[in-house]
Amino acid sequence: MIILDSDHWVALLRGRLDLRGRVTPGEELAMTAVSLAELSHGARKSARASDNLARLDVLTALTAVLPFDEAAARRFGALKAELEQAGAALSDLDLQIASIALTRRCVLVSHNRRHFDRVPELVVEDWLA
């Protein structure tokens, strides 16, 4: 399973991301509940809120939405303490996304490499670069 971060879902919805050659047959794309919250917020603020919310509904009907569950919450706590101690803290939302990816052993696809590359053991790719 491959987790796309919000920036990649936006690019996909706007036609700026071609998945051909990126996803192999049988591989599933997913989003985190955190990214869903970010996308929902962005859609509601947009000039075409109802259209964008409808597109988001279609997307979530076709895509797994991974929750921030107990395992991710525990990983979050450990990572937050570790990164703060190293002087490399992340925003809580980014750290929640990273924790979900780590506990599920998924690759995270994000354009925000500068932040996510700080997270030990997290595999990050950028398909927009």
What report would you give on this structure?
- This protein has helices at residues 6-13, 33-45, 49-62, 70-85, 92-103, 113-116, and strands at 2-4, 29-32, 64-66, 107-109, 124-125.
- It has a single domain (2-18, 26-125), classed as 5'-nuclease (Rossmann fold, 3-Layer(aba) Sandwich).
- Strands 3-2-1-4-5 form a 5-stranded parallel beta sheet.
- Helices cover 52% and strands 12% of the residues.
- It is built from 6 helices and 5 strands; from the N terminus they run βαβααβααβαβ.
- The chain has 129 residues and is α/β, with parallel strands linked by helices.
Please provide a brief summary of the model.
With 129 residues, the chain is α/β, with parallel strands linked by helices.
Key terms:
alpha/beta; single chain; Rossmann fold; 12% strand; 129 residues; globular; five-stranded parallel β-sheet; 52% helix
Global shape: globular
Euclidean distance between termini CA atoms: 21 Å
H/I helix tally: 6
**What value does the average pLDDT take?**
95
User: In sequence order, what are the helices and strands, one letter per element?
Assistant: EHEHHEHHEHE
Describe the secondary-structure layout.
Layout: E1 2-4, H1 6-13, E2 29-32, H2 33-45, H3 49-62, E3 64-66, H4 70-85, H5 92-103, E4 107-109, H6 113-116, E5 124-125
Parallel strand pairs: 1-2, 1-4, 2-3, 4-5
